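Narrative of activities, Objective 1.

The group set out to show that a structural description can be obtained from nothing but a protein's sequence at a throughput compatible with the screening campaign. Below is one input-output pair from the validation batch, recorded exactly as produced.
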Amino acid sequence: MEVFRPIMAHRIAVIHAMRVAVAPLEEAFQRHWPEAHPHCVLDESLARELAEAGRLTQHITDRIARLARDCRAQGAQAVLFSCSAFGAAIEAARQGMDVPVLKPNEAMLEEALEAGGRIRIMATFEPSLPSMVKELREMAALKGKDLRAEACFVPSALEALESKNPELHDALIAEAARKGAPCDVILLAQFSMARALPAVAKRVEARVLNSPDSAVAKLRGLMAALNGNGRLSPNGRPAAEVKKPS
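Output recorded for this entry:
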């Protein structure tokens, strides 16, 4: 007699550096992957330390790696970071991990490059912009795509959201999007900006992407591949994504 065993839901560790990013990602999981079990880890001191240092330090990089390892030790089958300012540190944290470790914006950047055209990256946490622009340039070069991109910081929007004024947050982002130069794709860099997508979409003709939806959709696809015959390379990516040397 064949015994059928229930399929366990995936346990996904989600590491946040800002409290305002928690709800948008939970909502994205409900929309795109309700069967998953996201486990929230919140460490707001990471964002404060980065803002004070003005750059990624070795101490911050070590903390990011330790968080990823701790989540894996507690049974996480994948790790997703939600703060776009820590891109290089997350890359370093992937080394030696045997589960997928995703940067917050990589899925959204991939979508933007596939769409092509002029790209505007909008952020409400200014330290996020340099790492995102760098990541987009590197991804474009790797894919052999021409890149036309600009960065846009929206002052006061994050403070409005943290002060329980989400309507002002959305309005500031939408107005900044409207005033910008014409573009084909607008990227909302912070997870906390996802809620502003409808307001932005009403003010511009460009396609508008947000990080949580793109990240959860990509992660679900990766985990489905790994449940088949996929495996991870030593750098925390599915082997299928790692190009063999020619």
